[in-house]
Amino acid sequence: MRSIISVALAVGWRMLHNNFTTPSLLIPGIAFPMFFFVAFAGGLSRVNDVPGFQFPVGYTAFQFVFVLLQSAAFAGVFTGFGIVRDFETGFARRLMVAAPDRRGILLGYGIGAIGRWAVTALVLTSVAMLAGMEVGGNGVDIFALYTLAALVNIIGLLWSAGVAMRFRTLQAAPLMQLPVFLSLFFAPVFVPVELLAGWLQTIAHLNPVTLMLAAGRSLIAGQPVHIVGGFGAAFALIALFSVWAMRGLRRAEAAGGG
Description:
The protein has about 260 residues and is mainly alpha-helical. The chain is about 75% helix and about 0% strand. Helix 3 packs across helix 9 (about 210-220). The two termini are about 25 Å apart.
């Protein structure tokens, strides 16, 4: 256990140091969520007047939850890009040789993903509050919301890590991004699922992201519903992608870490 923790802390520190000292890594992770928040919450604010749209704390808060979860997921995915770079530069090979328990490597990347997203979440929340976002939930509700977002971050990291450790090349970047992008945008992004129609509503009902969005939006409104479904979906995906990521790690080990 001590070896796992020491490896995890070393890898996590390296990921965080690289991210916060490299503008090309830091700025996009903050700029993209801000762009989506401004475009959706600002540009589509008239959706709040659509018949049937009823959200007690307004459209800004409705969209904030989506962008918060989106930023968490993509912070995990972007960490997968860092994993690929470690393989392409040969650092991952040296890391695997040096690590007595290689599960610590995956845990360290998880620490890096959470730390990377935490800064984005802080900036995004600050901007949303300055923009006058209403919050109906109490401290427990808001803590639960950010906990849910952290779980989404872990899901994104585990998915991208499994891809990165299997392919070990940036050519696999679209495979890391596209499934996450589609799962997010085939959820009820702009209006509640009840206002969707046709095949969009069918897909949204089958999409586990819908449950997480519903839970998160109910928390910020201070009217918690779908909590079991939302957190249950998150933990189920973490369990599934943990197996995916660990098998990817074994695949990388069998390939000699490079």
